[in-house]
Amino acid sequence: MRKIILNEKDMPDFYYNVQVDLPEPLLPPLHPVTREPIKADDLKPIFPQSLIKQETSDEREIEIPKKVRDKYLSYRPTPLIRALALEEYLNTPARIYYKHEGISPAGSHKLNTAIPQAYFNSIEGIRSLTTETGAGQWGSALSMACSFFNLKCKVFMVKASFEQKPYRRILMELFDAQVLPSPSSTTESGRKTLETDPNSPGSLGIAISEAVEEAVKNPDTNYALGSVLNHVLLHQSIIGLEVKKQLKLADESPEILIGCVGGGSNFGGLIAPFVKKKIKNNQIRLIAVEPSVAASLTKGIFEYDYGDTMGFTPLLAMYTLGHNFVPPPIHAGGLRYHGMAPIISNLYKNKIIEACSYDQKSIFEAARIFAKTEGITPAPESAHAIKKAIDEALIAKEEKKERTIVFLLSGHGYLDLSAYEKNREIN
Questions:
Q1: Which residues form a coiled coil (predicted)?
Q2: Exposed/middle/buried for 22, CB within 10 Å: 0-12, 13-18, 19+?
């Protein structure tokens, strides 16, 4: 079976809350000033009550509102595709499947959380959302979702990506978003950064500081985050829920699930419904793939740290490279983050998931192989998962063992062609 496609009626009508399956409870976020555990009221200046409730929920299943489902149906369920041409090229006995989230109107998995975040803010009377974006996938998704629910949108785009990826900015502006390169001169956070380093390439941590500052200053504005937080991974669980149904249709039992990680949202969404099985019988491998220049899991330490550079956000218990860490510019801008989602950090600390990292050259080589065999140009972020899937398929070949490998193609790379061109020039 080449493509496993679910009917619209088979799209999940609930999100899966993996928090209930964690081997140990998450440590509480701490207030950035008092360093005491955060109370729900502390989050009200930047988040709607419904998302605050989801952030701390202990319910396994959380219903997807009808208006959110209606928007999802423009592109969901997404296909699970057998990579037969890639298998033939590698001459491997492994069966390789990829979940294609790049077919969403925004071009990536980010719309899965942008839609509910915009919806929940709109029904609570918020008029504007502010956010950060690295490669522009999250900014594009939130800009689109805000237009669905008549919200204004301001996006602080990491300057390195702002300069590398003009078409992402154009897409955001198409949906009437205001897009600013971060660090910018419009916020105190941005000005402080520019005073220290006028040529700063920016980072997600800096852009988060600017976006949170903007939200706190304006009572009709909230902040939206595209990764890291529990409610974001909750919304992304729709990916794994669909994969579980699709694999059942294909009569497959996955042995390896792979996703790229920056903050952890797409990987968390893929593996959420499989964590319980992993803990119970340990027969499945869940592998997170990082860029070597921002490898918070494999090179960071587990401790409380701020989610942003300026220390505006709550302190989260996570693997981190330090909130002042500014990674060098890479084309996988969506993965240039200093920390990892608390849920993913919890799973890694307890050895439920694995992690590895690759350099930029090797992931572009994998991306080219995938493009030439499967005919899809992947986002540089997604190419990290492709690289690991290829490596695992080659191990299966060496061992002469069949193996079922599933990776998440989190987004397409058609707005990243300049990155491919520059990488080719370098090599």
A1: none
A2: middle
Q: Which residues contact 373 (CB under 8 A, 6 or more apart)?
A: 83, 85, 86, 88, 89
DSSP letters for 207-234: HHHHHHHHHHH-TTEEE--SSSSHHHHH
Which of 97, 114, 88 has its CA nearest to residue 5?
97
Query: 273 is written with which tokens?
Result: 């419904």
Between CA 187 and CA 210 the distance in angstroms is 6
Residue 197 falls inside a structural domain: no
pLDDT at 425: 55
Instruction: Note if the bond before 77 is cis, omega within 30 degrees.
Output: yes
Specify if 371 maps to a domain. yes
Nearest residue to 19 (alpha-carbon basis) of 240, 267, 276, 277: 276
Residue-number span of the structural domain to which 391 is assigned: 3-8+65-108+236-426
- Helix (H) / strand (E) element for 319: namely strand 315-320
Q: For residue 326, what pLDDT is reported?
A: 78
The domain that holds 350 is classified in CATH as 3.40.50.1100
The residues with which 256 forms a beta bridge, in sequence order, are 285, 405
**Consecutive H or E run containing 23:** none
pLDDT for 352? 97
Block residue for tokens 């390169």:
181
280 belongs to a structural domain: yes
Pair of tokens at residue 380: 């540089």
Write the DSSP symbol of residue 320. Answer: E
Q: How many CB atoms lie within 10 A of CB 11?
A: 18
Q: Which residue stretches of the chain have pLDDT < 50?
A: none
Residue 88 lies in a domain: yes
pLDDT on residue 330: 59
When divided into structural domains, the chain yields a total of 1
Q: Which residues pair with 406 in a beta bridge?
A: 97, 257
Q: Is 294 helix (H, G, I), strand (E, B) or coil?
A: helix
DSSP string, 58-121: --SEEEPPHHHHHHHTTT-SPPEEE-HHHHHHHT-S-EEEEEEGGGSTTSBTTHHHHHHHHHHH
CB atoms within 10 A of CB 220: 10
